[in-house]
Amino acid sequence: MLIVGIAGGTGSGKTTVVRKIIEKLPKGSVTVIPQDSYYKDNSHLPLEERQKINFDHPDAIEWPLLVKHIKEFKQQKQINQPIYSYLTCIRSEETILIKPSPIVIIEGILILGHKDLRNLMDLKVFVSADADDRLARVIQRDIIERGRSVSTVLERYEKTVKPSHLQFIEPTKRYADVIVPQGGNNCVAIDLLTKFILQNLS
User: Fold this and answer.
1) How many helical (H) and strand (E) elements, i.e. helices and strands, does the chain have?
2) Strand 90-98 and strand 79-85: pairing?
């Protein structure tokens, strides 16, 4: 089993990189574990308080559960992955049964900053993009997928996303084995990553 971590700032193009890698690998050979599924359950808080949570802070993640699940994968065990809603900021009572596969990709903004999780990875990737490009993607995504207004997105970006990126995300670039500039547009880097993964599988 090959464990690949793909990190990078919000809106850097991580999801696109993951999708393009999967398209080039044998069908059914990849399991993707999104960090976003492991946000702590905040159902004990009023909705107004939940909407103020800084999702770009390491404290927002239930790291022990994520680490436990990756270790179980390495033991060829199935896991019950949580389901988290950005609209309600709470976890569903239901989970998704996920089976291990030859390649496991962990994807998320903060994953390289957690030592125990990082030590489980065979390949660590950081997807880099210009701040302006990331902001444009964040605005588009949050309006469409999370029902937020432009003013709300911009306010959140200035108060939490930008400072958290500089404090918690950008510094983890130093742990990466590979840095992918320009996100999903970097076809050369994606091809090289795919070849590395295939070679290490065989």
Assistant:
1) 8, 7
2) antiparallel
User: Cα(92)–Cα(2) distance, rounded to whole angstroms?
Assistant: 29
pTM: 0.90
The number of beta carbons lying within 10 Å of the beta carbon of residue 149 is 10
Identify residue 200 by its one-letter amino acid code.
Answer: N
The predicted-structure confidence for 123-179, as pLDDT tens digits, reads as follows: 999 999 887 777 777 777 777 666 677 777 788 788 888 889 999 999 999 999 999
**Cα–Cα distances in angstroms (integers) from residue 68 to residues 71, 77, 85, 112, 158, in the given order:** 5, 11, 22, 16, 34
| Window from 36-40, 57-61, 108-112, 127-131 with minimum mean pLDDT | 127-131
Q: Which two tokens stand for residue 199?
A: 């070679």
The kind and range of the H/E element at 197 are helix 187-201
Q: Please give the domain boundaries of the chain with CATH numbers for all domains.
A: 2-201 (3.40.50.300)
Residue with tokens 């992918």: 180
Is residue 123 within 8 A of residue 5, CB to CB? The reply is: yes
Residue pair 149/143 in contact by the 8 Å Cβ criterion: yes
- Terminus-to-terminus CA distance in the chain, angstroms? 10
DSSP state of 1: -
Assigned token pair, 147: 């029902």
Q: Residues 2-41: pLDDT tens digits?
A: 999 999 988 888 999 999 999 999 999 999 999 999 999 8
Tokens, residue 73: 């994968």
